[in-house]
Design a protein that fits this description.
heterotrimer, A mainly alpha (311), B mainly alpha (298), C alpha/beta (270), A: 311 residues, mainly alpha, two-stranded antiparallel sheet, disordered C terminus, C: alpha/beta, 2 domains, six-stranded mixed sheet, 37% helix, globular
């Protein structure tokens, strides 16, 4: 991912979605909101994947984000969506900062398995925590924006506009990060850590930074999904949720800042159609799609749009 | 005192189940360096095949005592069919890819199998309680346990003792050890590494299916039983050391006893404890408590 | 000239293997030192110890008067000691241009430039131009311009070595450590590579230590030779003297073997 000329395209598309929003049916607004929110999680995963690290437990931060936002409403009766989102992002980011000291030491399968273990620890804790509703979880407070609760007909639209704005800001920020020397270290770390060290840079530091950004993005996504769905439960931390995130990451590819969001929209659109069509075969469809992408399009769907050749 | 006996007995029984569930995973990783997520599906397939076949035969008047053979037989059959299908049909074309990518491929297969199982067997639960109840129960002090659990423990012990023996004493076993250490040099020496991979994957599949088949009488067999097994098997295998058979046994024992103790004394920490041990081991001894020694290559 | 780099009584053992046996050496500023010795004599271990990749069991390393023994490789690099590798350490899936750019990016970062809030295009310290311009300039200096957009793994062997050395020199090091700079390189290219390196070194007034098996390269470019054997330094002096020393002849050069071209000069059936 080098300096991306596609980010302005993304921002334009988001603006268009926000503008057209009032014309779109509720289910589509909901789908877009969920897809874009989860796209934030995927964006974080892409940052780590560039450095060669696959997290099998990103659901950890997604869940922290959702529960932090939800707790804000449940215990302190704060329902402002901006505060909720900030809480989710900060809680997850701080967790990633702390855990990053440990995680940044690992590579390959061990990084993956440790992240999995950590997410399952949270799952195990939440399932038995009565204050959070145990396995049932709890409903989050209906959100408000600047103190106002939107009219029922406008709820989905308002949330989508908020999400679109945040996604635009996040995409621009990440793109900017990727243009800095620190942001460009990830593919170098993936290829040859020894050379990175001998050039005078700390691979662990670079990985830690990427990890914290990824965690914060996942928390942000979790807070938004919680607000959109209106409910949170420990399933948000379960390994199958992490699996879903990895799936979409592979699907979209790492070629661009837009790829996570395109991949997410395609995935969740297909998933909801496939599920409606045949609830007992959608996993098979998804599994086959994943196989096909891995085998034939190892750089993800995004590679279909780019014609960059390497000699 | 009773509680101590209960904790130990429950722990050992659960350990036996964990070992059977996880041993196939560690075998496949040890030889092929693949983290096989499909393991959970094959476990489920074993359970479904055993449940449906045993149930059908019992309905046709088979002597209940034979149900144990049917359980074992259906598991072996599942392994013999599914193992080669996956390895020859897909995996062998993917060995050049990164280990994480191969793991994702097995994850994709897992998704596919989850639905295939639903298509073939439907979503209603299967029950075969006969093998479970047939053997009656035994008394441990004031506690009563179904004798069936002894079978579980017996099979686990047989596998735990038998596999290393096979590796150490038979010609095939010794060749397998060289393949484990260095596939490239093994090929150069004329060993048909591809065939060993096929055999290993098939054997690992059979073991997974056996785990599922012998668990079937103790549960209601429903879609999704493979899901939890995957991540629990990971925990066991990681704790003992990826690729180590004795490690899997030790890991199973540790997880089983710790879980049992937690359930009895601090039930709110049950799930948390297992994955915490996994995380601790990964933090301090990533290669596991009993990892297979890696020879220095350079 | 002042001593810029000094090793004092370095000792390093791996079990029964003695990789460094009380090694002491004082390197003068701007000198060119050749390190020779058979495989396993301890030359690469010496480089690994200096650059912090290995920690000595005993002894210390001093750079510009400062004790740097405990520092990690990246800290040593930041101080101005850079090292190339026997097997080229490149970013294989990235292009030649990208390989160099990343190195320049690290130089920028270490100078506190190029952060998230940087306005405009930062200038690389030591070059006073943007990273992209410096990268192209460096590629030209090393004759790699026509491979600019080729993936590093697709480069032919000698050019991989050259790129590895180029990456080592990006940060304008004050001390350059080259591990077998001409190994795996064809005879025609060997001297060419060394000429490029030495001209850059002279321009920057840097100090060079290079490990070499080719005695012609050593004789041609080194002012001083350190000969290693079994973890110890067995000779230390100007090339002619060091190469002629009896121990060096016996353990390193192989005095009894004739040079190949001497044998060829005699007709086969005289």
């Amino acid at each position: 991912m080098s300096r991306d000329r596609t980010v302005p395209i993304l921002v334009a598309a988001l603006a268009a979605a926000a503008a057209l929003g009032p014309l779109l049916p509720d289910w589509m607004l909901f789908l877009l909101t969920i897809a874009l929110s989860k796209g934030l999680v995927i964006l974080g995963l892409v940052l780590c994947l560039r450095a060669g690290l696959v997290s099998f437990g990103q659901a950890l931060y997604f869940c922290i984000g959702g529960y932090a936002g939800g707790a804000l409403g449940r215990f302190w009766h704060v329902s402002d969506v901006l505060l909720v989102m900030l809480a989710g992002m900060t809680a997850a980011g701080l967790a990633a900062l702390a855990l990053g000291f440990l995680m940044a030491k690992y590579r390959g399968i061990f990084f993956g398995l440790l992240s999995l273990a950590l997410s399952m620890i949270l799952y195990g804790l939440l399932v038995k925590t009565e204050a959070f509703g145990s396995t049932d979880g709890f409903n989050v407070l209906p959100f408000t924006l600047f103190g106002i609760r939107p009219a029922e007909a406008w709820v989905r639209y308002v949330l989508l506009v908020v999400v679109c704005t945040v996604v635009a800001v996040a995409a621009i920020a990440v793109n900017r990060f990727l243009a800095t020397p620190l942001g460009q270290l990830a593919p170098a770390i993936k290829d040859n850590e020894i050379r990175v060290e001998y050039m005078g840079a700390s691979a662990r530091y670079a990985i830690h930074v990427n990890y914290v950004v990824a965690g914060a993005l996942a928390g942000l996504g979790g807070a938004f999904v919680a607000a959109a769905v209106g409910h949170i439960d420990p399933e948000m931390a379960y390994w199958t949720t992490s699996g879903e995130f990895i799936f979409v990451t592979i699907l979209g590819g790492t070629g661009s800042v837009i790829a996570p969001f395109l991949g997410a929209i395609m995935f969740y659109a297909v998933q909801s159609f496939a599920f409606d069509l045949s609830p007992n075969t959608w996993q098979m469809v998804l599994g086959t799609a994943l196989l096909l992408v891995i085998v034939f399009l190892p750089n993800g769907l995004w590679s279909v749009f780019t014609r960059r050749q390497r000699a | 005192m009773d509680q101590l006996v209960a904790v130990t007995a429950d722990g050992v029984i659960y350990s036996a189940w964990l070992f059977l569930a996880a041993v196939g995973l560690t075998l496949i990783y040890g030889v092929m360096k693949i983290v096989n997520v499909t393991h959970g599906s094959i476990y489920a397939l074993g359970a479904y095949a055993a449940a449906s076949l045993t149930g059908a035969l019992l309905a046709r008047g088979m002597a209940p005592a034979l149900s144990y053979l049917v359980l074992a037989g259906s598991a072996v059959l599942v392994g013999l069919v599914v193992g080669p299908l996956i390895e020859r049909g897909l995996l062998r074309f993917m060995y050049a890819k990164d280990e994480v990518v191969i793991m994702l491929i097995t994850y994709a297969l897992f998704l596919i199998f989850e639905d295939l199982i639903k298509l073939v067997w439907g979503t209603d639960p299967y029950f075969i309680a006969e093998p479970y109840g047939l053997l009656g129960s035994i008394h441990l002090g004031r506690l009563i346990y179904p004798t069936y659990n002894l079978i579980l423990i017996g099979i686990a012990l047989a596998t735990a003792a038998g596999l290393p023996l096979v590796l150490a004493r038979t010609r095939v076993g010794k060749l397998l050890v060289t393949v484990i250490h260095d596939p490239e040099i093994s090929r150069a020496m004329g060993i048909n590494v591809g065939r060993f991979y096929l055999v290993t994957f098939t054997l690992g599949s059979m073991l997974a299916a056996i785990g599922g088949a012998f668990t079937a009488p103790t549960i209601s067999v429903v879609p999704g039983i493979g899901v939890e097994v995957i991540v629990l098997s990971f925990a066991v295998v990681v704790i003992g050391g990826l690729g180590s058979l004795s490690g899997a046994a030790l890991g199973a024992l540790i997880v089983g006893l710790v879980r049992s103790a937690t359930i009895h004394y601090a039930p709110q920490f049950e799930l948390f404890v297992i994955y915490s041990v996994m995380a601790l081991v990964l933090t301090f001894r990533p290669r596991g408590l009993f990892s297979a020694a890696e020879a220095r290559k350079i | 000239m002042a001593t810029i780099l000094e090793a004092r009584d370095l000792d390093k053992r791996f079990g029964a293997v003695v990789a460094a046996r009380r090694i002491s050496a004082a390197i003068e500023q701007e000198s060119v030192v050749g390190l020779i010795g058979t495989n396993g004599a301890g030359k690469t271990t010496f480089l690994n110890l200096i650059t912090g990749y290995l920690k000595p069991d005993l002894g210390s390393i001093h750079y510009a008067g400062r004790n740097v023994t405990a520092l990690a490789p990246r800290a040593i690099t930041r101080l101005g000691i850079c090292r190339s590798f026997q097997i080229p350490q490149l970013y294989n899936s990235l292009t030649v241009f990208e390989n160099v750019s990343i190195g320049l990016g690290v130089v920028l970062r270490n100078a506190g430039r190029g952060g998230f809030f940087q306005r405009g295009v930062p200038k690389v310290p030591g070059y006073d131009a943007s990273a992209a311009d410096v990268a192209d300039h460096l590629l030209e200096r090393f004759g790699l311009t026509r491979y600019r957009d080729r993936a590093a793994q697709a480069l032919p062997g000698g050019l991989r070595k050259l790129l590895d050395i180029a990456l080592t020199m990006i940060a304008k090091p004050k001390v350059l450590l080259l591990d077998e700079p001409t190994s795996g390189v064809s005879v025609e290219e060997k001297f060419g590579i060394m000429e490029i390196v030495m001209s850059a070194v002279r321009a920057e007034r840097a100090t060079v230590l290079f490990v070499e098996h080719d005695m012609e390269v050593v004789s041609r470019f080194a002012e001083r030779v350190l000969a290693f054997y079994d973890g110890a330094i067995i000779a230390d002096g100007p090339p002619a003297a060091a190469l002629a020393a009896p121990e060096v002849q016996k353990y390193v050069v192989g005095g009894e073997l004739r040079r190949m071209d001497e044998n060829r000069a005699r007709p086969p059936h005289a």
